[in-house]
């Protein structure tokens, strides 16, 4: 009796050890599959998931995941190819539109020099307005397509404060023409960031251009020591919902008759590409666009 009891205990111990080993092997295989799957999703590689375990169930699971990865890789390549072809097509179309638009604007210049009636003069003004809007849209769309095709910007040390001051100075004439006297607040010391200076200047220019289009006659620009920049202006035509959509491609509001809807979209694209954040909100008829570029160590 005592012999059988010891035999049973020994058997249970052996089974327990086997089960513990099996669970350890399955856990290790699951971790290998999880790590490999995460790696394959975030890297462009033809290597599939392989595990050290010989367990048939875990190997069958890995093979099924590999089948889905092959499908995903194929669809990703098809998407990237189609996206590239679309960007190239948009760029080519914009380029092809420039020649006839230049001709249209040239003939308009000639017609505007002719002696015509008031009704014809009004019609020519409408045609000029739409031709200029189409020219601007074509140019912005062309630049947007080029920017979207670039994966990343080349970064360099930039004084964000000095760059913002230069951008504000470049808009002095436009502000004076619209009788806008900006209220500017800057920190005493330079604010250094790793940025692409050309891209950052484009961001400031697009934001300031948008502010002048929708401004009710005022403009406040402030930067703190942490590099957070706020552009604020009275925008009576905007609602909180409209402000939230200002960064959407082609979205415009009724007040921006000559707006292409791409300026702020380009600003967001460039900001996010350089690791920054941009947001907009409208409270009590006041539009605030906030721009942040974090300090990277």
From TrEMBL:
Reaction catalysed by this enzyme: ATP + protein L-histidine = ADP + protein N-phospho-L-histidine
Gene3D superfamilies according to UniProt: 1.10.287.130, Histidine kinase-like ATPase, C-terminal domain
EC number: 2.7.13.3
MF (Gene Ontology): phosphorelay sensor kinase activity
Entry-linked SUPFAM superfamilies: ATPase domain of HSP90 chaperone/DNA topoisomerase II/histidine kinase, Homodimeric domain of signal transducing histidine kinase
Protein origin, superkingdom: Bacteria
Name of the protein in question: histidine kinase
């Amino acid at each position: 009796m005592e012999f059988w009891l010891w035999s049973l205990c020994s058997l249970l111990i052996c089974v327990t050890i086997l089960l513990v080993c099996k669970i350890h092997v399955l856990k290790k295989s699951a971790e290998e599959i999880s790590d490999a799957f995460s790696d394959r999703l975030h890297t462009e590689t033809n290597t599939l998931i392989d595990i050290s375990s010989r367990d048939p169930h875990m190997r069958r699971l890995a093979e099924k995941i590999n089948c889905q990865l092959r499908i995903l890789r194929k669809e990703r390549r098809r998407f990237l190819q189609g996206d590239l072809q679309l960007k190239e097509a948009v760029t080519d179309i914009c380029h092809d539109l420039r020649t006839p638009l230049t001709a249209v604007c040239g003939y308009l210049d000639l017609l505007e020099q002719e002696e015509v009636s008031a009704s014809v003069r009004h019609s020519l003004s409408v045609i000029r307005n739409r031709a200029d809007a189409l020219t601007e849209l074509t140019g912005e769309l062309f630049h947007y397509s080029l920017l979207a095709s670039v994966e990343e910007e080349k970064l360099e040390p930039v004084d964000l404060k000095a760059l913002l001051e230069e951008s504000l100075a470049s808009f002095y004439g436009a502000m004076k023409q619209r009788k806008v006297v900006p209220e500017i607040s800057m920190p005493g010391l330079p604010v250094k960031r790793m940025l692409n200076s050309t891209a950052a200047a484009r961001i400031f220019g697009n934001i300031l251009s948008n502010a002048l289009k929708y401004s009710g006659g005022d403009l406040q620009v402030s930067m703190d020591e942490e590099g957070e920049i706020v552009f604020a202006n009275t925008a009576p035509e905007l609602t909180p919902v409209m402000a939230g959509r200002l960064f959407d491609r082609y979205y415009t509001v009724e007040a921006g008759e000559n707006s292409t809807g791409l300026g702020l979209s380009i600003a967001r694209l460039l900001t996010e590409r350089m690791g920054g954040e941009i947001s907009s909100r409208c409270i009590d008829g006041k539009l605030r666009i906030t721009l942040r570029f974090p300090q990277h160590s």
